[in-house]
Every structure is written in structure tokens, then in C-alpha cells.
Amino acid sequence: MNSKHSNHSPVKEAGKGCILGIVLMIVGFSIAHFVLGMEFFPR
After folding, report:
1. Which sequence ranges are marked TM in the entry (predicted)?
2. Which of 17, 28, 29, 42 has the fewest CB atoms within 10 Å of its CB?
């Protein structure tokens, strides 16, 4: 792999993936919490 002449470094790519994973995890948890809340506490 010749990544020396690439514009973006693998460190930035890894950071982007980590942030994306955290965001997806938070969004998924929020959706699950909302759905479970609707199921357990019907209004």
C-alpha cells in the first residue's frame, strides 16, 4: 500500500470511523430507549 502520497492519513480515517461509530451508537440507543419507553409507558 502506497499511502505516502495520499491526501488523508489513516489516523484521520480511523478518527472519522470512531466518531461515526459513537454517533451511530448514541442514535441507536436513543431510538431503542424511545421505543422501549413507548412500550413500557403507554400514554
Report:
1. 20-41
2. 42
Residue showing cell 505516502: 4
Closest to 34 measured CA to CA, from 20, 18, 43: 43
Dihedral sign from CA coordinates of 22, 24, 25, 27: positive
Task: Spell out the residues 6+ positions from residue 3 whose beta carbon is closer than 8 angstroms to its own.
Answer: 9, 10
The answer to whether 36 touches 29, Cβ cutoff 8 Å, is no
Look up the pTM and report it.
Answer: 0.52
Please tell me the distance from the alpha carbon of residue 20 to that of residue 18, in angstroms, as a whole number. 5
Q: What is the pLDDT of residue 9?
A: 76
